[in-house]
Amino acid sequence: MRGKKSRPVRGMNAALADGEAGVGEILPARRPRALWQLGAAVAAAAACTAATAVTYHAIANRSISFSGEVTPAHTYYLNFPATGSVQTLLVRPGDHVHAGEVLATQQSSVAAANLQAARAAVAADTALIAEDEHPATDPNTAAQDQLALAKAQSDASSAQGALSLVQTDTASQITAQTTAISSDQTTLTDDETRYTQSCGSSPTPPTTPPTTPPAAPPPHPSPSPVPTMTPAGPIMTPLTAVKGPAAVVAATPDPALCQNLASQIDRDAANLAQAKAQLSGLQSNTQSQVQQDQAALSQSQSVVQAAQAQIDAQGSALTPATLAQARSQLATAQAQVAADALALQQTTILAPADGVVADTAGAAGDLVGPDGVHAYSGPAAQSGTLVDQQPGVQLFVPTPAAGSGTADENPGTSALITVYSSPLEVTAQLPESQMTTVHEGRTTSLGLTSDGRTLTGRISQILLDPARVPGATYYDVTITIDNPPSDVLAGMSVNVTLN
């Protein structure tokens, strides 16, 4: 009898059906891992953790560089407080100077004469007060009073001489400056005529607006009044058509020639404006000096009157009011001595600190005042010229002026002497994100971009006044250079790295 086909046995009994493992077969347990395998896994995990920590530390502490610039400890711009001619200029750019060293001198004859007259007035007032407080009873009293009167008259004569000297000096300077203005005006007119003749079909060249001459000093009782010379009339008039042979113009003007003539007219206008500005400053300074000398003369004449009154009052008792008036005159004379001594001292420029001369903007004979030397701003500052229209290297640095900034409105001024004081430093701007790690005394590496050298330095100052730009805030940091080489100059670029 054929047996029945057996059904496949599943589950726990599958292994018992025909001796083969089935679905529900129970396999033997796996062999446990060896200890060395567990140790290797732990070591690999530890190495990965250490590498991650080292990488994070390196990223967090990597060196960050910033741009910086070599700067002097301080920059001094030196000028004479009063307007006058430079007598000597004793330094040149690159000279090393020491504090107190004489750098330049100004003509001081007028200041010296004023000081002498003021000292004489003090001596006369002192003698008069002594005589008033202790009247002499000896027979020589009259003779002494006469001597005091003679001395007071001599002092008044000295004051008159000082006034005459400044009048003569300023008159010659005004005459010379007026002559220079006339010469500049003639040159400008000639160049405009050439432009009209050669470029009649081109646009009319720019002209300078008329200027009003500065006011002259007020009249005074001195026998030698200061002449006031001002430019006559407007500077320029509109160009008119040239008649006769000069009216013949080339059919096709040369563009290069016309451009050069237009540039020359701009320079002529700038020179004329500069000369007029110098004349205005000279006349203003003259008026102030004349008033000062007139005050000194009036004071000396008051001393003469007091001496004469002393002679007239011999034998009369002096009242307290008379003594008080004499003391007031003495105090005024002493104040004038102090002012004149300061004015004489300020005719000499001394080096304010040890350092190096960075620039000089004048020479002996130049007219220098509190604003410096009137400087020609060059063709780069003139609108409409070829230099202004094309980019590139410019030999003249334009000086910005108030208003529209044109050369005829303000020719610009430059300091007579510029001094960089020692030692050199590095100034860098750091973003606010780095300020938490910056402190005074932190060492830095300074890489010179000029030759690749690396210097060392330390942060010496942190300025807390922020510099804000859209989206960022920076702080200025000053770094002292350790043993700076002699060939490192102010203005060099530096890459600053915080160590």
Automatic annotation (TrEMBL):
Record's keyword terms, sorted: Coiled coil, Membrane, Transmembrane, Transmembrane helix
Location of region: Disordered: 181-232
Segments of skewed composition (Pro residues): 203-228
Compartment(s) where it occurs, according to its Swiss-Prot or TrEMBL record: Cell envelope
Top-level taxon: Bacteria
Coiled coil ranges: 258-285
Regions that span the bilayer: 35-59
GO cellular component entries: cell envelope
InterPro entries xrefs: UPF0194_transport
Record-given protein name: HlyD family efflux transporter periplasmic adaptor subunit
Originating organism: Streptacidiphilus fuscans
